[in-house]
# Entry
Amino acid sequence: MTSELQGKIEYAKNIKPHLAALSRLVARPVCADELLDLASARQLRERLRLLPRGHPKTVALPFAAMRTEQFRRFVKALASAAPQPVQIWTSTAEACGPLTLDSILNFNFNFDFEDEPGGIIALRTADLLDRLLLDFSEEDGELELEAEWSGPRWGAVEYQE
# Structure
C-alpha cells in the first residue's frame, strides 16, 4: 500500500474524532476546512525535527489545576511573551492536520480529561519556536498533568506556584 493511500485511510478513520476533540479543546465547532492541509503539516513536522531542543521547564500538577486563576495567569504570561497564533497538535493532528488559533488565549484549558484520548496536547507558536506540552494521565485514580514549556520567549516564563 502506498504511503499516500495509507494517509488517506488514516485521515478518513480519524477526521471525525479529531474534529470532535478539537471542538471541545476550543469550545466551539471546528470544521475540516479550518485545519492546516496535510502537506503543510508534514513540512512543519520536518522543520520541527531540525530545530534545536531547548531546556524545557516542567511542572507537575493535578489535572484540575488548569482551571485555576494561577494557571490562567501563566497562560496570559505565555500569550504576552509571544503574542502570535498557535497551532494545536494532538495525537491525530499528523493524520488530519493541526488547528491554528489566533492566540493561546483561545485554547479552552477547561477541557475534560477524556476530551483528548491521546493524553498529549502540544501548543506551538506559528514560528515553531515556542511550545507548551500538556501531558495528562491517570495514576492510582488521580488525574495528573505535566506541563512542559520551552522556547526563546515561553521558556523565559515562570510558573508561579
